[in-house]
Amino acid sequence: MSYALHHDLSGDRVTVANDAARLAWNDTLEALLAHAAATPDHLARTLAADPDFALAHAAKGLMLLSLARAELAAPARDCLAKARAAARLRLVTRREAMVVEALALWLDGAPRRAAERLEAILLAHPFDVLALKLSHGIRFMLGDQVEMLSTLRRVAPGFGESHPLAGYVHGCHAFALEERGFYAEAERAGRRAVALSPRDAWGRHAVAHVLEMTGRADEGIAWLGDGRDIAHANNLRFHIVWHLALFRLERGETGEVLRLYDEEIRAESTDDYRDIANGASLLARLEFAGVDVGSRWDELAARAEGRVHDGCLVFADLHYALSLLGAGHAAEADAIARGLIADAQAHPSGERRDAARNGALAAFGLIAFHERDYREAARLLGAARDGLLTVGGSHAQRDLFEQAYAESLIRSGEHDRA
């Protein structure tokens, strides 16, 4: 098949066979940045128009790995094989080849090096939104807030309002700023992002984080509105409604929180780790507040049971364990905790060991809490506190473990430490 160099929506050259593939790729880029549910459809159209588009195959593989599901490792390896074969057929650009290399690194168990390879692209191609968004996601999964913000501080100022994707980049910048505690700057960046790109669900989400972390529940409810602005989004929309539920919970509106849980947050019974995390952490918060959540844990546990031996992401493992404990499935939760210990022992150094070790402490702490051994729960959760950043997730998400720690102290009679 013949091919030519075209410019994509970022302004970077892509090695594609035809303009139909380029246009479908542009749709893929915008959809990825918007967290649109249609992203896989646009990517499928791209590859249908050009089956030998190496960059699209590599991007697909990286997207699959970001879902942190054990069964997707094999399809991601297939994407790598197709990307490499396509790259041999054509003289792909160095930028495209580096995305393929990033996929190979992540598949080899080196996600940090994969992020570094993607960020190296930005040194020569500062408008490459694909490399930026993918590295942003990996850094978030690793809990690497410092490098996440460092990259955005370097790149985001170059995206003026005339760039068609500027809003999405400022949305990423807003989130990175918020996670480092620069709340005023983050709020400005996030509001600018949504003004420039109204479909920027991530930027809208970043502002919600700021409002949550600064205790502005009324503003948070007004900011998130009725959800029409995120109707296009993938399951990020469930997470944004989770934030809305937190604002409602802060106001003591537990009936409305349960309605949001039933009708939106868990309206679809999925086993995506992000969806399970939304549900489990919200139910736990409700129980800490003394609310009877009924049999809702059973549905989450039924989904989490199939993920006991996944071992892809510690943040996910902890929420699977929490779901299982909520339904009384202590043996399965214990299996997750012991799996984390085994993972830490198998990796004597590095970020994977640190994440697994801190995750194991937190998991056993949750188990002790559900066994009503609150003193032991406080000891274990307290030991995990300083290292929990390594498991990934946001401050708002990890706050669940702070709440569990405080509740353990209170229930063990140590009110002065809570």
Automatic annotation (TrEMBL):
Gene3D superfamilies: Tetratricopeptide repeat domain. The keyword Heme does not apply. Coiled coil: none annotated. InterPro entries: TPR-like_helical_dom_sf, TTC38. It comes from the Bacteria. PANTHER family: TETRATRICOPEPTIDE REPEAT PROTEIN 38 (PTHR16263). This is Tetratricopeptide repeat protein 38. It comes from Bosea lupini.
